[in-house]
Amino acid sequence: MVFQILVLWLCLNLPTANSATHSLKYFYTVLPQSTGLPEFSAVTYLDEEPIYFYDSSTKEVVARQEWVKEAVDPDFWRRNTQILKETEKVLKNNMATARDRFNQTSARTLQVMYSCEWVEETGATEGHEQYGYGGEDFLLFDLKNERWIAPVRQGHITKIKWDANVPKLKAKIHYLTHTCNEWLNKYVSNRRRMLQRTVPPQVTLFQKEPSYPVTCHATGFYPNAIMIFWRRDGVEVHGVDVVHEETLPNGDGTYQKRTHLAVSPEDLQKHDYKCTVKHSGNDVVLSANRDSIRGNSRNTQGVSIIIITINMVLISVILAFSVIVLVLKRTMYCKGKEPSTGKEKQCPISRLEKNVLLLNNSKPAEMEKSKLSHSADTLQCPTQDTTGSDRSRTISSGSSVGSDDSGDSTTPFVKKL
Fold it and tell me: What's the CATH code, domain 202-296?
């Protein structure tokens, strides 16, 4: 099948989270420099839905679904970013190799696709890998017969070389039949758990000024289906007095929504206004009154009090510091003898100056010297400095010497053509 048809089929299919057959697919694309687009991009799909992405412009693996962040370990993003940086180099060389084999002056687009499928009811699995160049199939992996197939003459050299490398061939088979399916099962389970969860909304009322509308704000809820409406004396308010904003994502997998009520301060005091939020069978009702509505005017008063208090404290500290400096300068000036008479200088000392001098001349209690001791969880090891002398460096046994990159990665490795 032509490689372009496979890509077109992928774009036309909608996500099928509840389908009995699940798939995990990795698409790598290398473009010639003349296109103006990122020369390399990698997209991972779960059931035809993109879950994370990388390209040569950002050089960073980025999640496209919030639930993916909780499905992987914290080092996942760094580890796979490094793998894809190396993959980018290999595939750019492969594109140049394919260009030379086709005897072309300029390269064409190179595409690579890895995938595995899992039938949930039967447990049956399948694995695929193929290379495309210039919109045509270049190499296909026959998992059943454990061999490569070259649909075009220019791919035969690579087919013979890859078939002869038995260790790499076995590693490829293991990845498509085991590692890929392990990640597929893990992603499906985590996505299902996240989609089935229910997070209730946090509801608040606020108003910028008394003449502004009162806003009923619900945030942090999941799923995104929610209803917000206002009631006055038990009767729902409709029309131009109520404005509903669209539901927006928060960026952490939850959502928020606002509904505004236009009401005068007199009408708000005269009638009983309530905001009702309905979400996943749960109701939250808030009465709109002076105590429940957050306003900028009240917040501003509180902030002003805090600012005034801080300023008073700062002024007091500055004044005290200035007095101490002046007294100390005066004291230093009065020390010594008069140049004309040779007598000691005499300066009048106020009560404030006496207190400052007593504070400045008081001797602190002697600190008892503590003996150096080494705890049981430290290690003395010698290090060599630039002068060649040995120095002792203490390293805690609980500190980390390095990171462990062991473990299977979800991102497959590629090989040179």
Answer: 2.60.40.10
